[in-house]
Design goal:
This protein is mainly β. The protein has 2 helices and 38 strands.
């Protein structure tokens, strides 16, 4: 009998313990009571909300999630330590090309046992109609008045190129200022990188911006030499044909970081103050700018504005085509046997033509294989029967000495001095079939 009583007592204790353990493992029942009426908001708002939360199991988090269609575009997470009222803000993203519509605001309450309660609210959204915008530049701010729905324009006396970002004012009681700047070659919200507006000329013109589709103007990329616009050859190359005088000042505009470009010393000289002057004698020249390799060079033109050719009387132009040379360096832009890359020698008078090379940069130190041509392309050329040299560094190929007829090479055992400038001068005073090459270190 005593044994039965002990067994009964043990069973009673076990039931009581199991019951308590089950209570401890209760999933709970998160309950929330929103204190905020979600009637409407604007894109760019920081929407404030207050929610009362409670549960008989400790709570974990309250999340506010905003959905544009199926995409969650914003989220705020609040730690909920006790049953109480919690207040937070959720940002209403401002994007391009999003029309007025209804978003979904979801409230998600979770306890420590991962039990979740959710609420969804429709949230009508409208695009703010800003009364004005501000164009912010390093030299000052400009007002951009509203000219129509989402349309704004700044009209002022402006430089040809001007960079700045656009700032929209905060709207309503929960709005934020919105910046529009330059990101990956396009205008994006929340950036203060300067937008590179450019016009064909300085003076009075308008900068426009649409806050719905982010369309803006003007973006007229205009490169100019001596106030004359360069012509586009392709995305990387621009040119302009000019009649120039020796020692003319060359004013270049429009190129980013132009102060760090490489200028062909055959045609341009740059002093310590950054002033650029033209080196060759008076004549018609084509100035060429290459954006990919960031260098500027030139070539001689004939009366029809075509690349000049060597004339029977020793005037015109002589061209370099072949291996071991290139501007701004042979390593990055070798000429090779691509006639479009032919280098123009500078006429220096008395039927002489000159080209300067920098050893180790624009000419290889000990391995060259180029020749002189009468034109920028195939045709007349200087063979070994028409060209001799007095140089002890450079030899003229004759088909038996390791070079084709007229091709130049470095003498065995010789090398150019790294970093030194060498002038290759072609003297045609005795006739085009009796050319003499000299090579001088300067």
């Amino acid at each position: 009998m005593k044994t039965n009583k002990l067994i009964l007592l043990f069973i009673t204790i076990l039931i009581a313990f199991t019951s308590c353990d089950d209570d401890d493992k209760s999933p709970g029942n998160p309950v929330m009571d929103s204190k905020t009426e979600f009637t409407s908001a604007m894109f760019g708002d920081s929407l404030q909300f207050t929610v009362n939360v409670m549960d008989d199991v400790p709570l974990s988090t309250l999340k506010a999630q905003l959905f544009y269609g199926e995409d969650m575009v914003s989220e705020t997470v609040i730690r909920t330590k006790t049953n109480d009222d919690y207040t937070g803000k959720i940002y209403i993203p401002y994007y391009a090309n999003i029309p007025n519509g209804t978003a979904t605001l979801k409230l998600v309450l979770q306890n420590i046992r991962f039990t979740i309660t959710e609420e969804e609210h429709d949230l009508p959204l409208t695009r703010p109609d800003f009364p004005y915008l501000t164009f912010v530049t390093e030299n000052g701010d400009y007002n951009m008045p509203r000219t129509g729905l989402y349309e704004y324009a700044l009209t002022d006396n402006l430089p040809r190129k001007i960079k700045g970002y656009i700032k929209a004012p905060a709207m309503g009681t929960s709005g934020n200022e919105i910046d529009f700047g330059w990101v990956d070659n396009a205008i994006k919200e929340h950036s203060t990188e300067g937008i590179p507006f450019s016009n064909s000329d300085a003076g009075v013109y308008s900068i426009t911006f649409n806050t719905f589709n982010y369309e803006a103007a003007p973006f007229i990329i205009s490169y100019a030499v001596n106030d004359e616009k360069m012509d586009r050859v392709d995305d990387d190359n621009y040119k302009i044909d000019l009649a120039l005088l020796q020692d003319d000042e060359i004013a270049v505009e429009g190129f980013d970081d132009f102060e760090n470009w490489w200028l062909d010393p055959n045609f341009f000289k740059k002093d310590a103050g950054g002033r650029i002057t033209f080196v060759p004698s008076d004549g018609k020249y084509r100035i060429k700018a290459n954006l990919q390799h960031e260098y500027m060079t030139a070539e001689v033109l004939d009366a029809s504005n075509n690349p000049a050719s060597l004339q029977a009387d020793g005037t015109g132009a002589v061209w370099v085509i072949g291996d071991g040379v290139g501007f701004p360096s042979f390593a990055t832009n070798a000429v090779g046997w691509n006639t479009a890359k032919a280098l123009c020698m500078v006429p220096i008078g008395n039927k002489k033509f000159e080209i300067l090379f920098i050893a180790g940069k624009t000419i290889k130190l000990d391995d060259i294989n180029f020749k002189f041509f009468h034109q920028k392309g195939w045709g007349g050329e200087f063979s070994h029967t028409a060209l001799t040299t007095t140089s002890t560094l450079v030899f003229v190929g004759d088909t038996t000495n390791g070079r084709d007829s007229g091709n130049l090479g470095i003498v065995d055992g010789q090398t150019l001095e790294d970093g030194a400038t060498y002038a290759f001068v072609l003297d045609l005073s005795a006739g085009n079939s009796n050319a003499v090459l000299t090579v001088e270190k300067r």
